[in-house]
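Consortium newsletter contribution from the modelling node. Members have asked for a concrete example of what our holo predictions look like. Here is one, prepared for the zinc ion complex that several groups have been discussing at recent meetings.
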Amino acid sequence: MPATVEPTKNGTGVVDGAGAYPGPVGTGRVLARGLLRRCPVCGSGSLFTRWFVLAERCPGCRLRFQRIEGHWLGALGLNTIVSFTALFVVVVASLVLDHPDYHSGRLAVVAVVTAVVVPLVFYPSSKTMWTAIDVLMRPLEPGEADPEAPRRQRR
Ligand SMILES: [Zn+2]
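And here is the predicted structure:
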């Protein structure tokens, strides 16, 4: 059975029937929300004011994205893993495609462009995806996410 994220109003981790928020959400959906730069808990978008600036809290459920001190080290690690994997794939693909006539200049340019562009492009997703992984590993504490926040503001 896949792991689920079940933030509840009572914070016990037990879904309290009708109105539970957001209800059991599968691991795949939580990770997909993170990858797509959405809140892993409620799925709200527009979390970034600029490409590199993440809001402190989710506008939908009020989840504080930096859940603990040092939270973003995980995002840094995730971005590093993705960037080095992309660099590895690009270098190996270039070597395979150029075989047997290697073009070291072209390979260096492709590698440097990959090493610079991928971490910058993946940066926002690394933050929301790391928060998704963190939520999956360390379930929400009571009161960490407030499903009623947007509705209260409208009243
Ligand atoms: Zn949210």
